[in-house]
Each structure stands twice: as structure tokens, then as C-alpha cells.
Design brief:
With about 300 residues, this protein is mainly α. The chain has 13 helices and three strands. Helix 1 packs antiparallel against helix 2, helix 3 runs antiparallel to helix 4 and helix 10 crosses helix 13. The longest helix has 20 residues.
């Protein structure tokens, strides 16, 4: 069974080109699944796995108080694994076919108001290399809806300030082109002229955003910067590295953007993922109505 898992991981890595985090998630889920089959169900051959075994495993996870989201992710991993085994001729049946995915409540992403975004964007003060870098990163995130991993992995040739767009590789190494506004363009140009050269020093690097050593800024490094800037901006809401991405999508839809265009800019494979932001917009409209309508 371990060999089958290795073959599956090779398949999703090389043939499907999935993102590193997605691959790690599949591997973690399936290791737990195969361990359970072998140690609890005493099943050592994949051909012997049945729907009942999968249901037992899901009950085992549920008894450990795993969330509906975790259960759904595990089912997706197990289903992809068994489909691969069947397609590769390792087994003659797929026991996951009639296993249903639990319908859990989907939490609405937290977003900032336009005023809070403005306060955050104004938080980097002065014209030090760090302030120019932080300003450019925040403006770019809010202007494009990039994932933080996409932001920190950007290189110099991914940004085209004269044309007003950025190019990025998203999940599954899919390339997308995203327009950016004048604020982001100006902030990046200022950073490239007056900030990045000082951070780079004598190093040689193609990375767009650099740390104090002149190397590529990490996700953890960005997270620390964001927390400090949120404090400086006196934002009391809980912020995550994804908050500006959520705010980008929500504010576009609130102002009449086409959902298909937002889907493309976010790099969502399925529009149902983008539709969560329409629920956020409706929720915010309801809050505004309750606060301001005299007969609410």
C-alpha cells in the first residue's frame, strides 16, 4: 500500500502538477487513511478495501471531533486515490464511488471595510526601503487579489508597470495575468527605484520582494509585517494573510464586477469557490440595512 501511495504522489506531482501544499495535504490524509486500514481494519491489500471500511474511517475521524471541512477534504483525497488505483489497474473497483461528502456550514471569509483597507494601506510610513516595500506589497495584494504565496514568489519580470499588469503562477502552476491600478503601479515603481536596491545590496536576486538580508521574503516574514501594520493602523479585526484577497473580491462584487471576471482574477478553477463572496456581500448589505433603516 505504501508503494501505491508513492505512485499516487508521483502522479499528482509530475503529471498533474499540483501545488506543494495540496500535495502535502493529500499525503497527510492518505497516510492516516492507510494506517487506519492496516492497524484497525486489518486490511493490507487495496483490492479488499470496501465502502464500509471508508465509512468506518470517516466515523473514526468524526469521533475525534474533526470538522466537516476536514472530513470533506479526507473524502476528496480518498476518492482521488481510489480513482487513480482503478485507472492504473491496481484494483478492479472503486469503493469510494457512493461515499457522500458531508455538507458542513461554510464560514464566510472575514473582510475589511474600504475605510479599514485605506488605513492599512497608509500604515507604512516614510520612505525607508522597508516602508516602500511594505507599501508596495499591500497595494499589490489589494489591487490584484494575489495569494500571499504568489506574492512572495514573484520575480522582477512578473511585474509590468508600464502595461499595468502582473503575471503569476497559481495553484497547479496555472499562469494568469491580472491588471493592477495606478496606486499599486506607483507604489511598486517607488519601491523598485528607492527601496529594493538598498535591500539587495551586493546580492544577486530576481526576487521582487526582499528581506533585510537581500533574499526573497518568506510567507512567515510577510505575516509578521502584516500583524505589525494592522496594529499600527488600529485595526481590531483578526487579520490573516488572506484578508486582503477576500477584501479585493468582496469589494469588486459590491461595486458591480462580473463574477466570472473575479473568478479569473482570483484563479479559482470552480466558480462555486468565488460565489462565497456574493454571500459576504449580501451579509454586509444586511448589516448596513439593520444599522441605518429606521424600520429595520
Amino acid at each position: 500500500m505504501k508503494d501505491a501511495l508513492k505512485d499516487f504522489i508521483h502522479y499528482i506531482t509530475v503529471e498533474r502538477g499540483l501545488a506543494e501544499n495540496t500535495i502535502s495535504s493529500y499525503q497527510r490524509d492518505l497516510k492516516g487513511y492507510l494506517f487506519y486500514l492496516e492497524k484497525v481494519e486489518e486490511v493490507t491489500e487495496l483490492e479488499r478495501v470496501s465502502r464500509v471500511h471508508i465509512l468506518h474511517y470517516l466515523k473514526y475521524l468524526k469521533d475525534k471531533n474533526q470538522s466537516s471541512k476536514t472530513l470533506a477534504r479526507n473524502i476528496a483525497s480518498i476518492r482521488a486515490f481510489h480513482q487513480f488505483l482503478l485507472r492504473d489497474g491496481v484494483v478492479t473497483h472503486d469503493p469510494s464511488v457512493h461515499v457522500e461528502t458531508p455538507q458542513g456550514e461554510r464560514k464566510l471569509p472575514k473582510v475589511l471595510s474600504i475605510e479599514e483597507v485605506e488605513a492599512l494601506l497608509q500604515a507604512p510610513k516614510g520612505d525607508t526601503p522597508f516602508a516602500l516595500r511594505d507599501k508596495a506589497m499591500l497595494e499589490l495584494l489589494y489591487a490584484t487579489g494575489l495569494r500571499v504565496s504568489e506574492l512572495v514568489n514573484m520575480n522582477l519580470d512578473d511585474v509590468h508597470t508600464t502595461m499595468g499588469f502582473v503575471r503569476c503562477l497559481g495553484k497547479g502552476k496555472k499562469e494568469r495575468i491580472i491588471p493592477m491600478g495606478q496606486y499599486a503601479t506607483n507604489a511598486i515603481e517607488q519601491y523598485l527605484q528607492k527601496g529594493r536596491p538598498q535591500l539587495l545590496g551586493k546580492n544577486a536576486s530576481d526576487s521582487l520582494f526582499l528581506n533585510h538580508h537581500g533574499n526573497r521574503l518568506s510567507r512567515q516574514g510577510f505575516w509578521k509585517i502584516l500583524k505589525k501594520l494592522a496594529t499600527d493602523a488600529k485595526i481590531e479585526k483578526e487579520l490573516t494573510p488572506h484578508t486582503l484577497r477576500h477584501s479585493f473580491a468582496t469589494h469588486l462584487l459590491e461595486n458591480g464586477a462580473d463574477i466570472r471576471a473575479v473568478q479569473e482574477m482570483l484563479g479559482h478553477a470552480d466558480i462555486s469557490t468565488t460565489q462565497i463572496y456574493t454571500h459576504v456581500s449580501k451579509s454586509r448589505l444586511t448589516d448596513v440595512y439593520k444599522q441605518h433603516h429606521p424600520r429595520s
